[in-house]
Amino acid sequence: MALPPSITVAVQQLPLESGLTQTELFEYVFDDTLLSLSFVLNIALAGITILGIAYLGRNLTDPRAKVIAVSLMLISVVSISSYSGLTSGLTLSVVEMPAGHPAEGTTTAGEDGVLTMWGRYLTWTFSTPFILIALGMIAGSNWTKILTTCAFTIAMCVTGLAAALTTSSLIMRWWWFAISSIFFLVIVFVILVDWTAEAERTGTADLFSTLKILTVVGWFGYPILWALGVEGFAVLDVAITSWGYSILDIITKYIVTFVAMFYVIDEPRAITGGEEYGASLPGSRPADD
């Protein structure tokens, strides 16, 4: 059954749809060695991190320690999938910037617009909650607060994606960016204030202090790069912007993962939950995995 003309036109005008095929985008990426390496390096590091966590966590016995380890592993599971999408051209598009944007009139591989790596927003949307789950559990926070930060981080990433894909108005691009930044600041407040205090009570303050510095300082780099990169003021080109994001991912994902994992494998009393941890009913024990 044919779609109504109005719907057909709307679909054809989606900013994700460019005139370049995936093959052309794939070739464009690998014609730029600097750009392609920013993707490939993260695929390799994510793979190494997954194997490293599997090896380090092979003797874990406490169910709460296992949950933290699995959360840490899932960060890299998302990353290796997302970076594969970027490398293949699946999650790349050429988006024409609105009037007044510094990159207005730019062409990419003969197509009007700039290369938009919208697949990175998928990485952040699905991986950042796992970072927060691990951090929240290490701090000793409750699940209500942990899930609230996860909801805010998903909202932050989705509104960031909206900022990157809005082509109708320059003002609206920055409006979406402002909303995303507000959600980001809520998360930062929870980490720096609430979870820091809870880590003091839990006894994980030293570890949490290291993790929060790596995480928060790294996370502040993302909106700064967005503003300076091709999606914002276009001070940095696509390859440099991509490398900036990749370096931040290395710090806030893989380095944070191993710092936390080397602590968790010793199963200190501060992070263990006991044999009944994870049971849905009082007095019951979760089955061995």
Automatic annotation (TrEMBL):
Main subcellular location: membrane
Topology in membrane: Multi-pass membrane protein
Coiled coil: none
Record keywords: Chromophore, Membrane, Photoreceptor protein, Receptor, Retinal protein, Sensory transduction, Transmembrane, Transmembrane helix
Gene3D superfamilies documented for this protein: Rhodopsin 7-helix transmembrane proteins
Subcellular location: Membrane
Single biological process term from Gene Ontology: phototransduction
GO cellular component: a single term: membrane
Transmembrane segments: 34-55, 67-86, 121-139, 146-168, 174-193, 213-236, 242-265
Molecular function via GO: photoreceptor activity
Family of the protein in this entry: Belongs to the archaeal/bacterial/fungal opsin family.
PANTHER family cross-referenced by the UniProt entry: BACTERIORHODOPSIN _OPSIN, NOPA (EUROFUNG), PTHR28286
Protein name in the entry: Halorhodopsin
Organism the protein comes from: Halobiforma nitratireducens JCM 10879
Classification lineage: Archaea, Methanobacteriati, Methanobacteriota, Stenosarchaea group, Halobacteria
